[in-house]
Amino acid sequence: MLDASTPEHSAQPSTEAPPIVTFEGVTKRYPGIIANDSIDMEFRAGEVHVLLGENGAGKSTLVSMLSGLQQPDDGRILIDGVEKPISSPADALDIGISTVFQHSMLVPSLTLVENATLGRKWWQAPDRAGTAGAMKTAAERIGVTLDPMALTGDLSLGERQQAEITRALMRGARFLILDEATAMLTPNDAARLGELMQRLAAEGMAVVFITHKLNEAVAYGDRISVLRLGKKVGGLTPEELKSLDAQEATNQVVRLMFGTQGAQSGDAERPDMSTVDRDAKPTLELLALYADSGRVPLSNIEFKVWPGEILGIAGIDGNGQKQLAAALAGQAPISDGRVVLDGDYIDRMSIGQRRAKGMRYVTDDRLGEGTVGTFPMSINLLLKEIGEAPFWRSGLEQPEAIRENARRQVRDYDIRTPSIETPIGKLSGGNIQKVLLARELSGSARVVIFEKPTYGLDLANIAATQTRIRETAQSGAAVILISTELDEILALSHRIAVMDQGEIKGIVENTDGARHKIGELMSGVKK
Amino acid sequence: MSTQTMTETGSTDRFRAKLQSMSGVLLMSLGPVVAAFILSGIILLILDVNPFSYYGYVFGRGLLSPTGVQATLTRMGPLLLIAAALIVAFRAGIWNLGGDAQFLIGAVFCAAWTPLMAPHVPVWLGLLAGAAISAVFGGIWALVPAFLRAYQGLNEIITTLMMNFLGISFASVLVKLVFLDPTTTVPQTRTLAVDDRLPTLFGTTISSGLVIGLIAILGVHFMMTRTAFGLRLRVVGGNASAAVHAGLAVPLLTVAVFAISGALAGLSGGVAILGQYGNVRADWNPGYSLAVVPLVFLARFNGFAAIGFVALFSILSIGAESAARRTGIPNYFTLVTIGILLVMLAISEYYGAKRQKAGA
Description:
By secondary structure, chain A is an alpha/beta fold. Helices cover 34% and strands 24% of the residues of chain A.
């Protein structure tokens, strides 16, 4: 089915084709953050334009401006060389811009034809036969085989995406955005989608392909643009891509994405190794840990953390980091393997027993599971010690002890709150995080899991939190730092484990070149 | 001179601010009540009934006549127990709407077995055993939804309502087939002799069930606000994920909440039998629980406020029975007033939150 047409890449005059959409100095600000900082970019017909970047680099913002969901605060958007805002998704469709997401947007209980007729006015009868014909023609044009009468729910995700692309073509799309479309696909389906992209470009369409996987970017892309912290930091032109072999191109992209060139400053604040005592027995040891029940199953996770050490866990969000933290803290069941803390097996223990052994978990879901938003901050400080002396005696609340504890923590952790009785949900994110830190770090902590500890905080609170993490390790606890911010992980951790799809892809010592190695492990270049 | 004036202005300003905040609180709590009576009055006007004479009858009977006020206070006993049952559950985030069946099952078993025991034991022991029976069976009836919710995650609103249908029918079947009093022809249980019932208070006709109800609701209020167990329940109700994260045994706590709530609702049935009715007739269902649900919401799950709203409801419902005979307005009109009150309170809360936001 795929051999209908093989694109002749060299014959494609891609650089001379006119751009369909041009960004000139496009800027988009959110409170406290510049998501896109004067981006200049051209999206040409006949090109697969790959957008690369870490989480939070600004890819999603850029795509939402292309598809009319967001408006730029500054700069111009040119359509076919004429300045014209894309003011709504309907506007985008009129221009011919269509988006395919990583999750299918088709109704599973309807057939493909019925899905394709959904856009019609409510008083029009769906023309099933006609639409089916049009669908078949469109599919043949791009070398896709599909049965218009098939029930969407019976198709694989890859087939559904092909159907979505076909539907976009039927609606006259000439500009196709594939937003992490390969993220959930099997390698085979992903390769098929890659070939389809190239055929679409050969047909004269503009394709924008967003991915985390560098090998896909180099294999299917005609042009690569790399975003970092909201800025376009560079890219590869079609000429460069053609002249470089895959390995060279990948190396160059890794350098752009993870900023290896500018890494000197980051390397300078490498953590102090003197606190780590690798001769001692490891504080925490994971032995072939499996957990099947979560959204991302964990398989065969093994690592050790020594006292005073910070083990960073890097990886793209949603690759099992949360499941790992929950399994260690006791919130999620472990299906196989063992966890050893200070020489004792803790994998059968309850959450409370693990906490008593010194296991602490600073969750990133601060209001979702870390606190009860409507409760006073003083009670939230003791949420994991309800019923314990001196705050409760024979089951009865001791208000003065609870207030005293809150006043002390407010002082020690510099928590800015109108009063210790203020409902915690009314505090700022930084102060809620301070409450969580005060709660988890008090007492004798042996292992502390920090999950995205600086997520959503301002600069001052980020610095304060990072200092706490360092101090925690210096006091002799084993620290696991889960973060999607590579800079943070490199600045704090002694070793870095890279997680991908519920597995540890490798553990790297934080020495020169660690950034590059992590980048490769994260992008799936090395197997 | 001028400084003195300034301090004076300062203190009057402070006084005015205090007055303003006090009047604000008063307006927020009494405003909805007044508005509810006005709107109910308009509905009465539409029904061609003079609202002043209707409410004159209601309060004249429910609050101002000696027999009426005694009936009002007696009725408050079981209602307060129901309110206590609901406060435990609602504060823990569990919407136990099966109180009617828990009440009836408790009442039926209490009415079936206490009269059999009473002749052979001291009065106090008979009463204690009767109360215990009603609490135990009320609690048992709540266990099915408890386990379904705790271990299968089934929505307790659906299951408790379904258990209502089953429980109300089951109570009727028990009365007609199993616990039938062989000496009468009407289907009802044996009757507890008046001497064996709960004592009345200070030579009036007020049942001491009122005292039990007051103790229960104050005890529940204390438990929920001052004890570690109550706090655990409130954490589960406030944020179930946080409860899991903090290591609380959520399923076990859920079952405990259902058991306590069901037991209190069952005890309410027991108190109604031991204090007032003495027996259960087939197809008897006063529907107290679903009537008290809005009251507990009006009280925002606060025990003290609940006493006030239960008293108001008790006055209205006792008064409405007499007003019904004179004006032809069925006594369900009380529920209309309560319903309007609930809507008025929601509206005032909405504007209160808006005003607070604007002020901040």
